[in-house]
Every structure is written in C-alpha cells, then in structure tokens.
Write a structure and sequence with these properties.
Layout: H1 4-15, E1 19-23, E2 39-43, E3 64-66, E4 70-71, E5 81-82, E6 91-93, E7 107-114, E8 122-127, E9 136-141, E10 146-151, E11 160-163, E12 174-182, E13 185-190, E14 193-199
Parallel strand pairs: 1-2, 1-7
Antiparallel strand pairs: 3-6, 4-5, 7-12, 8-9, 9-10, 10-11, 12-13, 13-14
Length: 206
C-alpha cells in the first residue's frame, strides 16, 4: 500500500504540472489522461504503420519516423507499441514547437518503458543533439545504475546533471518512468514510487 507521502507526491504530479509530455507505449487514444489539458506531447503508437504515427495530444503534430519499429507482440496497452530502437539512426521525433519549451516551468515527462536488454544504456527522450542545440535529455546509465536528467542553459555544455537513486531494471518487464519538476525540486518516479529528489534551479535552454 502506498504511503501518505507517496500518494501526496502522485497527487501533486497529476494536478500541478504546467508542461506534460507522455510517451504512453500503446496507451489507447480514447483513455482520458490526468490533466490532459496540460499534455503537450503524447505518443500512443497505435496507428496502423510506423510511418503514419501522429501525436495524440490536442496539438496533433506530425511525428518524424526514422527507421523505428512497431511491435505487435510487445505492448503495454492497445494492440501494439514501439520496439526498442538501436542507434542514433533509429528514432521518433517531432519538429520543435513553443509548447515543448520547458524553460523554468513545472513539468512531468513520463513513459511506459520495456527493457528487452538490460545490458545497455537507454536514452528515453529529450531535446538534445550531439554538440549544439542541446536542451534536456532523460536516459538510463547502465554503469552507474541510475536514471540521469541532464540539461543545458546555453545550448552546448551540460551544466546540470541529476541522478536518481540506484535502479536495476529486470529484462522483459514494464516500468512506468517519470521525471517531475515541482518548483525548485526535481523527482524521479518508477512505478509511482520516488527514486530520489534533488534541487533544480535556472532555465532550461530551448
């Protein structure tokens, strides 16, 4: 049973964020999401083909498909999900937009993640390039056994790195993974349980 502290953290997460990005691996588009008016990007992966994927938030933006794979045998909801991607050449993305600017706002970024291979680093999502126009990224560091949140304030050099508590995923298992900013505190959640909080200040580069 969740503690009072955990329930309160979940309540704040569902009601207070101003920016909310969801990558729900196969979540039915007809299912109402908490604080849906604040959802600025939602991926359900339920369209018929990989090349026809669209954002399921109210913005309905086109998704850029770069050799990703749709899976009909591994999915959390509905009838299909997105397969683990290998390498920078395989990805899903959307064009930049004002509503995707996190800045100094509160936000919640969350996804259902399925680890087919626990022996690798995993980049979940971000607005991040190799050398410049870097904004933010959430990834899993195998060697450190942490979720990692990294941001820049100037677009090039990473100047904020925040680590979760130790996390060791099990292969072929679904985990609800979230990172939440509430004021000056950033918190990681796995399956609704806090995996560490740290102070966060400043404005994230856009």
């Amino acid at each position: 049973m969740a503690s009072c502290q955990q329930r309160e953290a979940l309540r704040r997460r569902r009601t207070n964020q101003r920016r909310r990005l969801l990558l729900e691996a196969g979540a039915p588009a007809s299912t109402p999401q908490p604080s849906f008016a604040n959802v600025v990007w939602q991926m359900n992966f339920e369209q018929a083909t990989a090349a026809s994927m669209t954002d399921q938030s109210s913005y309905n933006r086109a998704i850029i498909y770069n050799s990703g794979t749709v899976s009909t045998d591994v999915f959390k909801f509905g009838t299909q999900g997105v397969r683990k991607l290998g390498g920078n050449a395989q990805s899903w993305s959307a064009n930049d937009a004002a509503e995707l600017n996190l800045g100094a706002n509160d936000f919640c970024i969350e996804a259902w993640c399925y680890y087919e291979d626990v022996g690798l680093d995993h980049v979940f999502f971000g607005q991040f390039s190799t050398t410049n126009n870097r904004s933010w990224v959430l990834w899993y560091d195998l060697s450190a056994q942490n979720l990692v949140w990294e941001t820049t304030s100037g677009g090039t050099t990473i100047d904020t790195t925040i680590l979760s508590d130790t996390f060791l995923p099990t292969a072929d298992t679904w985990y609800h993974t979230a990172v939440v900013r509430n004021g000056d505190v950033l918190t990681f959640y796995i399956n609704g349980v806090s995996y560490g909080s740290s102070a966060i200040t400043g404005t994230i580069y856009n």
